[in-house]
Amino acid sequence: MLETFNSCDPVPEEKDHIESPWESMAGYVRRLMKVPYSQEQECAVCAEVFVVVYAAIQKAGDQGLSMGEISQVINLPGADIDGLIVDALQAFGKALK
Fold first, then answer.
1. Rounded to 10 degrees, what is the CA torsion of 36, 41, 45, 46?
2. What are residue 65's phi and psi, to 5 degrees?
3. How far is C-alpha 92 from the chain's CA centre?
4. For residues 95 and 82, is the Cβ–Cβ distance under 8 A?
5. Is the dihedral of CA 63, 66, 68, 69 positive or negative?
6. According to the 3-state scheme, what is the secondary structure of the chain?
7. CB–CB of 74/82 below 8 Å?
8. How far is CA 22 from the centre of its chain?
9. What's residue 47's pLDDT?
10. pTM
11. Mean pLDDT, 10 residues at a time, over the chain (97 residues)?
């Protein structure tokens, strides 16, 4: 007999898999994207981009970075995910707007 799935049921966690906060952020942004993303955007939403942007924000210190500067750090023209990356960093307590 097939098991029924209720979308309100919690998703069981895989106990053996440990996900880094950066991987969690990448998954978070992928879920936030409203339209199916292209391969270019999929690449942009990998854990490493969050590490790079976070390091750039830390290096900027109190001065912070503008969205234009963050876009330069990401360096993916047309990907249009800069705001989502910053939103994820903020949601995970790694950055402030």
1. 120
2. -130, 145
3. 9
4. no
5. positive
6. CCCCCCCCCCCCCCCCCCCCHHHHHHHHHHHHCCCCCCHHHHHHCCHHHHHHHHHHHHHHHHHCCCHHHHHHHHCCCCCCCHHHHHHHHHHCCCCCC
7. yes
8. 7
9. 92
10. 0.70
11. 49 63 91 64 78 94 91 78 90 89
Cα dihedral: 27, 30, 31, 35 (round 10): -170
pLDDT at residue 97 in the model: 77
Q: Which residue, among 77, 96, 76, has the nearest Cα to 86 in the 3D structure?
A: 96
Q: What is the pLDDT of residue 51?
A: 94
pLDDT at res. 41: 58
